Automatic annotation (TrEMBL):
Key words of the record: DNA damage, DNA excision, DNA repair, Excision nuclease, Hydrolase, SOS response
Domain GIY-YIG: 28-102
This protein's record includes keyword Nucleotide-binding: no
Protein name from the UniProt record: Excinuclease cho
GO BP annotations listed: nucleotide-excision repair; SOS response
GO CC term (a single one): excinuclease repair complex
InterPro entries according to UniProt: GIY-YIG_endonuc (IPR000305), GIY-YIG_endonuc_sf (IPR035901), GIY-YIG_UvrC_Cho (IPR047296), UvrABC_protein_C (IPR050066)
Chain segments annotated as coiled-coil in the UniProt record: none
Molecular function via GO: hydrolase activity; nuclease activity
Domain of life of the native organism: Bacteria
Keyword Nucleotidyltransferase appears in the UniProt entry: no
Length: 277
């Protein structure tokens, strides 16, 4: 029994050394890397501003033992910077569904909370358009639960939020428990309730797409210039010239939550170089 255990450790050590040697051949530059096993399907897809260093970190991490035991080679795609690496990683994880990626999975339907004519609605996020939207949720149930949490924290009325139906002229039960400030019985003005609701929602604000069509986000390094094409918070691909970037434009592209989270800050703050296409 001890002999078999020692042999197993020796094989594992030999495999790790082989993987280290392969990792040392990767570039110390931004991009997306993939772990491959015997199967054509990828095991894991990741991104880094230093591909070589990040893959070596995987090899040094004990929790990665199962992934490493199945890995036989690495591949990579260079990018000009971190934005391109993040966009490509999110796209490829959705397309290829690697065994060991637990994040960046595709949601079949995303919804958001909107205010339309003063009324709260739960809407398909792609249909929200320019309406003020708050939060991104994988289901209507998740959106309702988020509203409950907001109401419980800020003493808002379930009936005014559309969570519960209340007969005309009735005060909600939560007001008796001092968990509602009383908009349902006139103890709080409607406008005060609305302002407190808006203040509670503001941290969840989802920005509408700020351009009339697709844009190219330009990233440059010493060796590469790339133009990442995005429309309505959906990544369409990367090109090396504006002419090629324009060919990637697809007007029907849908909203993508991961793309939104990657790009909302650089686009809204002006930190990224943008070319309208």
């Amino acid at each position: 029994m001890p002999a078999r255990s020692s042999a197993g450790r020796a094989v594992a050590a030999e495999l790790l050394q082989d993987l280290r040697e392969l990792a040392k051949q990767l570039p110390p530059a931004p991009g997306v890397y993939t772990f491959h096993g015997e199967s054509p399907l990828p095991l894991y897809i990741g991104k880094s501003v230093n591909i070589r260093g990040r893959v070596l970190d995987h090899i040094r991490t004990p929790d990665e033992a199962r992934l490493l035991s199945l890995t036989r080679r690495f591949s990579f795609v260079r990018t000009a910077g971190d934005i391109g690496a993040q966009l490509l990683e999110a796209q490829q994880v959705k397309l290829q569904q690697p065994l060991f990626n637990k994040r960046l999975r595709r949601n079949k339907w995303l919804c958001t909370i909107t205010l339309q004519a003063g009324e709260l609605c739960i809407t398909d996020v792609h249909d929200a358009g320019d309406t003020a939207s708050f939060g991104l949720y994988p289901s209507r149930f998740a959106a309702v639960e988020a509203l409950r949490e907001i109401a419980d924290t800020h003493l808002l009325c379930y009936s005014r939020l559309g969570i519960e139906k209340l007969p005309a002229g009735r005060t909600c039960f939560r007001h008796a428990l001092k968990r509602c400030a009383g908009v349902c019985c006139g103890a709080e003005p409607e406008d005060d309730h609305r302002q407190r609701l808006l203040a509670a929602l503001i941290d969840r604000h989802v920005h509408a797409w700020p351009y009339p069509g697709a844009v190219g986000i330009v990233e440059k390094s010493d060796e590469l210039q790339q133009i990442h094409v995005v429309r309505n918070w959906h990544y369409l691909g990367t090109a090396d010239t504006l002419a090629k970037a324009r060919k990637l434009d697809q007007p029907s592209a849908s909203f993508d939550r991961d793309c939104y989270r990657i790009l909302v800050r650089p686009l809204i703050t002006g930190a990224a170089e943008i070319r309208e296409l």
